[in-house]
Amino acid sequence: MDEMHRLQGNVIHLGDAEQKRALSGTSHKTETKMTPIAASLASRLTAAWAGALARTQVVTEIRKTADGHHIVTETLDGTTYDFWHDGRSGTTISPEERSLLGELTGIVETLARYADAAPSARPAVEKKLDAQLEAFQRRLKRNEPCLRAEWPRKAD
Fold first, then answer.
1. pTM of the predicted model over 0.70
2. Measured between alpha carbons, how far apart are the two ends of the chain, in Å?
3. Domain residue ranges of the chain, discontinuous segments joined by +
């Protein structure tokens, strides 16, 4: 249990009935936004996606305890981000702020604001997007880890 706690953080144990009741209250909404963008911005976004997806990692989660209880890990806001490009895909859920994945989702959120913005406001949003993409590419080139390392928690 200590090792599982170290790997997965705080966990909540739900029985089958509680898990079904909790899941019934969740929703899965997908949003698609489309807007024309400059070819140079499109290529920079493609490079960001490709760079992030080149670093995808398969994470094996322990979903059941030895005594058969189900484990649900805590997430910050529960938002799932799915990325795909050129036959590769990856998913992240509620990434930590300032982490590499957190910055990538920040780019997505700025891109969504760009799509929602009036044409006269888009240059300002694009400027922010350019800065985010530049910072993200610098971090990719430094080969920073996607996940923030955490020290093992002390037993309570």
1. no
2. 13
3. 34-59+77-141
